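Researcher: Next entry in the queue.
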Amino acid sequence: LDTIALCGFGYRFNSFYRETPHPFVDAMTRTLTESQARARQLPVQTRLRVRAQRQLEEDQQFMDDLVDRLIAERRAQGDAADTTDLLGRMLAGVDRNGDRLPDRNIRAQCITFLIAGHETTSGLLSFALYYLVANPRFLQRARAEVDEVLGRTSQPTFEQVHRLRYVRQVLDESLRLWPTAPGFTR
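Model: Structure for this entry, 186 residues:
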């Protein structure tokens, strides 16, 4: 979560420096738990859970407010704002018609990246690293490819990352062997 927030939006949750989770994490966890519970409830049950509805609304509002603040702060920076991360690209980008994403859409995208990406990304990276460490010859091959493609580059380009074919195969195989989201509710 910290990595996605920092790389995607320039925001620090500082999870490693806190005794308790960031309030966003608490709100996100409660929202996910309630959403999963609702998927198994009859509509009448959901309507009767007034306190749960109130908490859900408060948590959603907290997450919305935090991301809205990030958007406002970035917009206030004007031309000096970072346009290289995900938030910057969403704020500065235009479509074929010259239209920009509305802030409400940007907020929804940011929250989606944080909620959907934090667990799956960390799970994929954890298992990929595990498999590489457990299989040193594959680790050697992946490391050689990274050294060849990236060299001493401190900021890889999209084209360079796209050339990491063996690393991509390692990630794909890790997902096949240990999918980060192996189940779903229908």
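Model: The two ends are 26 Å apart (CA to CA).
Researcher: Noted, moving on.
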